[in-house]
Each structure stands twice: as structure tokens, then as C-alpha cells.
Automatic annotation (TrEMBL):
Pfam families xrefs: AMP-binding (PF00501), AMP-binding_C (PF13193)
PROSITE patterns linked to this entry: AMP_BINDING
Boundaries of every AMP-dependent synthetase/ligase domain copy: 19-400
AMP-binding enzyme C-terminal domain mapped to chain residues: 450-526
Keywords: Ligase
Family: Belongs to the ATP-dependent AMP-binding enzyme family.
Organism: Spinacia oleracea (Spinach)
UniProt name for this protein: Trans-cinnamate:CoA ligase, peroxisomal
CDD domains: ttLC_FACS_AEE21_like (cd12118)
């Protein structure tokens, strides 16, 4: 039996939009302020834009970059760019001009779409380039930009490209599902950002796995609180089309706008990092919060959420599911699937279980936790730590123009995440730390995540990050950087240390705490522990810490 056109077609998420236009034609596809589009209109606009891209001279696999917040144009380009046979590069809006310049140069972008708000930043980046891409400006109205730094002959207008595009355009046929569909750059906290290449096949399978893993039903109303430039919105840019849902786009993910959107549009789903969960809890007093008439499902990832935070979100009316993923895994690779038997547990125990990263989504063929020396799987005891490794069709094609880094990431036939974790007896995985963030004190491995989880339970703590600091006897010891709660800032260092002594093994108790106004974060919202380690290196171990007899006994045992 042979393959033929009838029984073998390339997998690509582009097909989700055509299907949505056929079966959900008059249903709202995108709502942005006062603007509304149907799926029929979105399909028409994407085809027109794709035809205009080709009229500008783009060829197969050319890179098209865009710098924009969560607006309709960015959503449309997730379909229009691959419809033209090109590769989408959504750039993080929090980057500086030099980083943007580096991405444009490395990706060899042919066209650069820029939202009006980011014109000064974009032009600052472009001036640093020798080979400059063509510019397309995305306006919201004729008064949304000034012409001070623009020459009308130097750029094209986004809406004009759609208006003049061919309404009968037939999207480029994807002959090989291994062809690239998008190029996403890592945040580069420890090295230069690397360009992660996704295939049409990987994006398609990752999207379906995401929908199934999160148990997203039909016709969801999805609020874009997660930036679309994060792993293509964790593939939900394509996924909402697959479910015939409605995209609620907001330019700024503030607490007030999120609550307002939930109430106005009956939002059913949203994604965000744990930091956004904290914003939702802290930036609006309880009596001003919108009353949630129905449950809002939240998928969170990017950092392990403390159990206390998950419990508080549940009390407000949000059902939070924890996922784990990486740019290289096309977004979520693990999800903490809920088991009905857990419904009988206490809320505290449920919250604790939710902090685990969970089980693999369906496009991940295999996941394991390996001993980093022997590459043997660690036992499912919830204690033995190893590196989390993955295999599956959702894993990236590789790093763009970086064969060395690609080979290293795929050593021994696995993708190495660089994250350390354990496997519980029920098969659920739990992250303990980043490989580079483990604190080795007197030969003992200390999980910074575990220490952070305990400190975060303190009612007067808003945020916490734990890193290694030098210790004259043990080599390293934990140092905690803490942001005080806005509701009560009376907490002291000794109060935190005493709290840790009551809730942690003695060797895991921080030897110093440092209160800060805010934690340094990357452009993707992750805490820059490298910057904190640099500060902690200058600290001396204080002699004023209270010691108990149990501490002395522990010191003897370690010697």
C-alpha cells in the first residue's frame, strides 16, 4: 500500500484556521477593545496578508519578524506568515535595542513588522544593522504614530497590505511537515540567546497535545494574558482556532484589565506565569475584585508555583493547572493532570499536589529523570534527584545556525532540559531546581526551589529567590532575597530565619536574608539568579545567627 494525496497530508496548524472559517464562520474569533472579527473574516485577512508578503518578494523559509504586544495583527501573522511558506519570528517586547538587533541579524529577517508603540525601540535596533529588513508599521488609528522619525517611503502599512492582498489567495501547500514554521529565541540568561526552530509537524502535534492535556473543550473564551511571543503563546495561537474559540486580546496584562475582561467577555481560560497570579491577588483589594460567576481555568508555568499561592487562587475562583515546558519543547511538555481521587483531600494537600510538574503531554513520547553520570533512570521514590530528559515530536528541530549547541542538547538520544527533578511513585515528576541553581553545602545538595517554597509560606513574604553564597566551612550556603508583602512589611531577618529553622532541615536554612524592593527578572519574567549570585558572593557569613543544640549535632554529623 502506497502513500497518496488522499491518505497522506503534511501536518500543519495552518489547517486549523481553514476549518474554523468553514464551521465557525460567524463566531467571534478575535475581540480587541471595540474591534471584533469572525473566523471567516480572520481567514480572509490572513490569506490577503500572505499574498501581500509574497508580492514583496519573500521566498520559502524566509524569516518574518514582528515586535508587538498581544494585538490582532500578531495573532493573524501566526497563520499568514506560514501560509506564505515563510517562518514567523515573534520578538519579545521586553528586550532592549541591542538584543533585538542581534535577533534580526541572526535570523536574517527579510521583513520587520512593528507595532506603533515600539517604533522608537525598533528604529534604534535597525540603525545598528548593516542589512536592514523592510519595515511594516501596525497602527491602531491614523493618530497612533507620529511621523517625526519616519519617512513614508521607508515603511509599509499593515492594513494596506491586507486591503490590497488577494482575497482568493490559496495558501502555499506544505509539502514537508518537517519544514520550519517559527523561530523563537531563548531569553539568554546564561549565554547568548539561541534561535529555536519549530516544524509544522511539531507545532501541530504540540497544539493538539496542549488542548488535550489541559482538557480544553469547544468554544473557549481565551484571554491573552500570556505573551504570544512565548513559544507562540504555548501553541494556543493555533489552538484556539482548532477549538473554534474566541481570542480576547489585551495590550497590557494588568490586574484591572484582566478582571474587567473576565467579567465583560465571560472568559473561560487564560495562561500566565506565577508572577501574574500574584498580581491578580495583590494589586486589587478583596472588596474590589470582580466576582467570578463561573470558574476561570488558568494554566501556569515558567516557575514552580508555591502551594500557598495556588490555594489562594482557588479561593478567589480560579482553577489553576500547573504545566512545565521550555522553548525547546514547543511550550508545555508536562502537565499536572488532576485525578478525581484527589478531590477528597484537604485544600492544603490539593495545593501541594498541584505544585508538581506532572506527566508528559501526548506528543512527548518519553520522559525520564536520569542520573547525570550513568544516564540510568532514577527510582520512582520522590527523593532521588536527576536531570529531566525528553523525547518526542514536540521537541525543536534544533538551534538555528548552531550545530554544536544542538548536538549537546540531544546527547544520548534525549533532549536535556537542564532541570533537576524527582519522580514520585505515581509517575508524576517534580522539579527541584535548575542544574546551575543547586546549592552544594558540605557535600549536601540543597534545592533552592524547596527553600523558596517554605519561605514563601510566610504571610509577610511576597516574593523570594534563594541562591548560593560562599561559606568558609561548607563551601556554599543558601542566601535568600526577599520582597516583603505590601500588606505587612514588618518582617525581620531573624523572624525569617526562625521560621526556616522550624520548617527546614538545619543545613537548608539560609545563612543570610536580604530584603529588596524587587527581584531582578529577565525579559520573560524569570528571576535572574545569576545577578543575585553575584551580589551574594560579596556577603560574609554573619555570626549573629541563633544556633540551637540540634544545629551543633548536625554540624558534628556532617564532619
Amino acid at each position: 500500500m502506497n502513500k497518496c494525496e488522499a491518505n497522506n497530508t503534511a501536518l500543519t496548524p495552518i489547517t486549523f484556521l481553514k476549518r474554523a472559517a468553514m464551521f465557525y464562520a460567524e463566531r467571534n474569533s478575535i475581540i480587541y477593545g471595540g474591534a471584533r472579527f469572525t473566523w471567516h473574516q480572520t481567514y480572509d485577512r490572513c490569506r490577503r496578508l500572505a499574498s501581500s508578503l509574497l508580492s514583496l518578494g519573500l521566498a520559502k523559509n524566509n524569516v518574518v519578524s514582528i515586535l508587538a504586544p498581544n494585538i490582532p495583527a500578531l495573532y493573524e501573522m501566526h497563520f499568514a506568515v506560514p501560509m506564505a511558506g515563510c517562518v514567523l519570528n515573534a520578538i519579545n517586547t521586553r528586550l532592549d535595542a541591542n538584543n533585538i538587533k542581534s535577533i534580526l541579524h541572526h535570523s536574517e529577517a527579510k521583513i520587520f513588522f512593528v507595532d506603533y508603540e515600539y517604533i522608537p525601540l525598533a528604529y534604534q535596533a535597525i540603525r545598528l544593522l548593516e542589512n536592514r529588513p523592510s519595515i511594516v508599521i501596525i497602527k491602531e488609528n491614523e493618530n497612533s504614530i507620529t511621523m517625526d522619525n519616519l519617512d513614508s517611503h521607508q515603511y509599509k502599512d499593515y492594513e494596506e497590505l491586507i486591503t490590497t492582498g488577494n482575497a482568493k489567495f490559496v495558501p502555499k501547500k506544505i509539502e514537508d511537515e518537517w519544514d520550519p514554521i517559527s523561530l523563537n529565541y531563548t531569553s539568554g540568561t546564561t549565554s547568548s540567546p539561541k534561535g529555536v526552530v519549530y516544524s509544522h509537524r511539531g507545532a501541530y502535534l504540540s497544539t493538539l497535545s496542549m488542548l488535550l492535556g489541559w482538557e480544553m473543550g469547544s468554544q473557549p473564551v481565551y484571554l491573552w494574558s500570556l505573551p504570544m511571543f512565548h513559544c507562540n503563546g504555548w501553541t494556543l495561537t493555533w489552538g484556539i482556532a482548532a477549538r473554534g474559540g474566541t481570542n480576547i486580546c489585551i495590550r497590557y496584562p494588568t490586574a484591572s484589565l484582566i478582571y474587567e475582561s473576565i467579567q465583560l467577555h465571560d472568559v473561560t481560560h487564560m495562561c500566565c506565569a506565577p508572577v501574574v497570579l500574584k498580581i491578580l491577588l495583590e494589586e486589587k483589594p478583596n472588596n474590589e475584585r470582580v466576582h467570578l460567576t463561573s470558574r476561570v481555568n488558568i494554566l501556569t508555568g515558567g516557575a514552580p508555583p508555591p502551594a500557598k499561592l495556588l490555594k489562594e487562587m482557588n479561593e478567589v475562583g480560579f482553577h489553576v493547572v500547573h504545566a512545565y515546558g521550555l522553548t525547546e519543547a514547543t511550550g508545555p511538555a508536562l502537565v499536572c493532570e488532576w485525578q478525581k481521587k484527589w478531590d477528597r483531600l484537604s485544600l492544603d494537600e490539593q495545593a501541594r499536589l498541584k505544585t508538581r510538574q506532572g506527566v508528559s503531554v501526548l506528543n512527548i513520547t518519553d520522559v525520564s529523570v536520569k542520573d547525570m553520570v550513568t544516564m540510568q533512570s532514577v527510582p520512582n521514590d520522590g527523593k532521588t534527584i536527576g536531570e529531566i530528559v525528553l523525547r518526542g515530536s514536540g521537541i525543536m528541530k534544533g538551534y538555528f545556525k548552531n550545530e554544536k549547541a544542538t548536538s549537546k542538547a540531544f546527547e544520548y538520544g534525549w533532549f536535556h532540559t537542564g532541570d533537576l527533578g524527582v519522580i514520585h511513585p505515581d509517575g508524576y515528576i517534580e522539579i527541584k531546581d535548575r542544574l546551575k541553581d543547586v546549592i552544594i553545602s558540605g557535600g549536601e545538595n540543597i534545592s533552592s526551589v524547596e527553600v523558596e517554597g517554605v519561605i514563601f509560606q510566610h504571610p509577610k513574604v511576597s516574593e523570594v529567590a534563594v541562591v548560593a553564597m560562599p561559606h568558609p566551612r561548607w563551601g556554599e550556603s543558601p542566601c535568600a532575597f526577599i520582597v516583603k508583602s505590601a500588606k505587612d512589611k514588618s518582617v525581620t531577618e531573624q523572624e525569617i530565619l526562625m521560621y526556616c529553622r522550624c520548617n527546614l532541615p538545619r543545613y537548608m536554612v539560609p545563612k543570610k536574608t536580604c530584603f529588596v524592593k524587587e527581584l531582578p527578572k529577565t525579559s520573560t519574567g524569570k528571576v535572574q539568579k545569576g545577578a543575585l549570585r553575584a551580589i551574594a558572593k560579596k556577603f560574609d557569613v554573619p555570626n549573629s545567627n541563633i544556633e540551637f543544640e540540634s544545629d551543633k549535632k548536625h554540624i558534628v554529623s556532617r564532619l
